[in-house]
Design a protein that fits this description.
The chain is an all-alpha fold. The chain is built from six helices and no strands. It binds heme C (HEC). The site of heme C has 17 residues, from α3, α4 and α5.
Amino acid sequence: MRPSLISLVAAALVCAATLPQAAAAADARYIAANCANCHGTDGRSAGGGGMPGLAGLSAPYFVEQMNAFRSGKRQATVMHQIAKGYTEAEINSLAAYFAAQKSDK
Ligand code: HEC
C-alpha cells in the first residue's frame, strides 16, 4: 500500500515538473470556476444585479483590482475576502485566463 502511494506521488511530481505550462493553464481554469457562481461561466456575467463580468478585462486592470481588494484600498462587499484567498501567482494566472476570454459585449 505505502510504496505504491509513494510512487504515485513521485509520478505526479514528475508530471507536474515536465508540464508546467499545461498545469498552469489547467489550474487557472479550475480556480476560475470558483468565480463562476457570481461572475458567470468563464467570467461572462449574465448582467443580473449589476455583477461585473471578468471576461476580457485587461490583465493589469484585473491584477490591480485584486490587489486593491486584498489591501482594502477598494471597498467591497465580498471581494476583499475572496481576493485574500489567492496567491499572487494564482491571481496572475487568473488575470491571463480572464483576459483571454471573449466578453459578450
Ligand atoms: C459571492 C460572489 C462572488 C464570487 C464567488 C466572486 N466574486 Fe468577484 N465580485 C463580486 C462582487 C459583488 C463584486 C463587486 C465588488 C464587491 O462588492 O465586492 C466583484 C468584483 C470583482 C472584480 C472587479 C471587476 C471590475 O470590473 O472592476 C474582480 C476583478 C473580481 N470580482 C474577481 C473575482 C475573481 C477572480 C473571483 C474568483 C476567484 C471572484 N471575483 C469571485 C462577487 C463575487
